[in-house]
Design brief:
Elements: H1 45-50, H2 66-83, E1 90-95, H3 98-108, E2 114-118, H4 121-132, E3 140-143, E4 160-164, E5 166-167, E6 172-173, E7 187-191, E8 208-211, E9 223-228, H5 230-240, H6 252-259, H7 270-286, H8 288-308, E10 313-315, E11 327-332, H9 338-347, E12 363-367, H10 374-391
Parallel strand pairs: 2-3, 2-4, 4-7, 7-8
Antiparallel strand pairs: 1-9, 5-6, 8-9, 10-11, 11-12
Family: Belongs to the class-V pyridoxal-phosphate-dependent aminotransferase family. SerC subfamily.
Catalytic activity: 4-(phosphooxy)-L-threonine + 2-oxoglutarate = (R)-3-hydroxy-2-oxo-4-phosphooxybutanoate + L-glutamate; O-phospho-L-serine + 2-oxoglutarate = 3-phosphooxypyruvate + L-glutamate
Organism: Pseudokineococcus lusitanus
Amino acid sequence: MTSPPGAAAPAPAAVPGDPAPDLRVPASLLPADGRFGSGPSRVRAAQVEALTGIATTVVGTSHRQAPVMDLVRRARTGLAALLGAPDGYEVVLGNGGSTLFWDVAALGLVREQAQACVVGEFSAKLAAVLTAAPFLADPEVLSAPYGSRVLPASRSGVDTYAFAHNETSTGVLTPVHRPAGADDDALVLVDATSAAGGVDVDLAEADVYYFAPQKALASDGGLWFAVCSPRALARVEEVAALGRWTPASLSLPLALASSRKEQTLNTPAVVTLALLVDQVEWLLAQGGLAWAAARTAESSGHLYAWAEQRVWARPFVADPAHRSPVVGTVDLLAPVDATAVRRVLRANGVVDVDPYRALGPDQLRVGMFPAVDPADVQALTACVDWVVERLA
């Protein structure tokens, strides 16, 4: 974490290969908190402090008893309120993250054939899971060049439409809408891992809105959550009746039954639950999803405007309508050395602005989730300006 405003900046740490290890960003430019990771993301200090209240009462106790079950209840009801779950929708949770939920969905939600929209590394991984499943027909895969998006399109025979609300690797946002003309019983399956809690959504347009809590919800990994419509809940029963062999840890019917008891099938990460509950209740107290979406829009609006005003930078996502408000990707153009810029920033306590590994080195990727103060994003860009000028 960076020094508070007005304090002396820490001496930069030596970084192997750093072309300018002695560059010291003035303390007046540094953000109050220099963490901009896209996942795991910044956790507020108040969340960590809140853990002291349960350190000797809830942590280390049975997850089948009231204290931990109450955390599960607060997580489920809080998420339903934050995301505006319509009547009849249920919040289901289980152990593992979104990566595990892809397997859960393939086993427990897709009847025969899915359509998958691929706009980045994470949406490509879901498409790969659906393709590899031996009990499903090959999915129809719709792809767009990284940095742009493709929308789901209704097709005869497709029973599940899968796409990411926010593609974390590229910073591309896809609106959540049910494809016009889709079969009445088809499911809309939305990966909301980096969107849930930071981007506005109408859950009536989705049947399964699933996510892990280590991004906009400022918690740790290890759990998945899925907000399921009545149509999705009926599909769970329908697919279960097909008799597919499913490991208990990947069973959606078992996860649903456990969730209705305010439990998980096996022992959950209690600290992850506690961090999540504190963040969700903080967001609700601030004004809910509308407040969170306005805050991320302010941060991202500044980042993209800043990049457009520099001759040596540009937003990676060219179309403003496709740009994410929670994960911003910015290309740094020659002769600026993006790797050198990131090294100097890290040496000064401004961290985790690295691009996703498959997208090449000449980029900054900035997490702007609700826990990130827009003033810190403004400070980040001021630091980049300062570093680029010195490296030149």
